Structure formats: structure tokens, C-alpha cells
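Predict structure. Chain length: 87.
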Amino acid sequence: MTIKVKAVGHISTSLGTETVEFGEQEITVLDLMERLRQMASKDPHLGFTRFNTLLIVNGGEAFTASAENRRLKDGDEVLLLPFSHGG
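Prediction complete.
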């Protein structure tokens, strides 16, 4: 009973880790993002929101985190990618 989340770029820096696991059988994207934001650094330069984050589920399906009602289920692996990468 686990949903695995891997974060890259400034999202992992903000979280202080590259991976997080949630022990739920199901969680909405909105709930996932709210829980991750509660864990995140309060540094405004490291922030991420549902509007600047792309989710890739199980290596295939991609959507923005603004798809708040999309449900993630037990066994899903989620990759969080920031829209911006600097330059």
C-alpha cells in the first residue's frame, strides 16, 4: 500500500529529498500536492505549485498538477518535474 513520488530539480531541493512515499491506497493530486507543500522549504525561490509542476505517472501518463481530481492509486510511481529549469 504505497504511492511513490520522485522529485527532480528545485522540487527535490525544496523537499530536501528526491523520494517520498505515501502509505495510502488512493490520494488525489490536490491532496498529494498539499501534503508535499507542507513538507517543503519555505524559501520562496524553491517553491513549487500545482501550476508549475508536471506529473508523470508510471513512466507514461503526463499531466499538470492542476488536474486536482486525478486519483493516484496504490502502486503508482509519480515523477514530479518543474516547468522551469533555469538557464
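Summary: The beta strands are 3-7, 19-22, 26-28, 53-57, 61-64, 71-73, 77-82.
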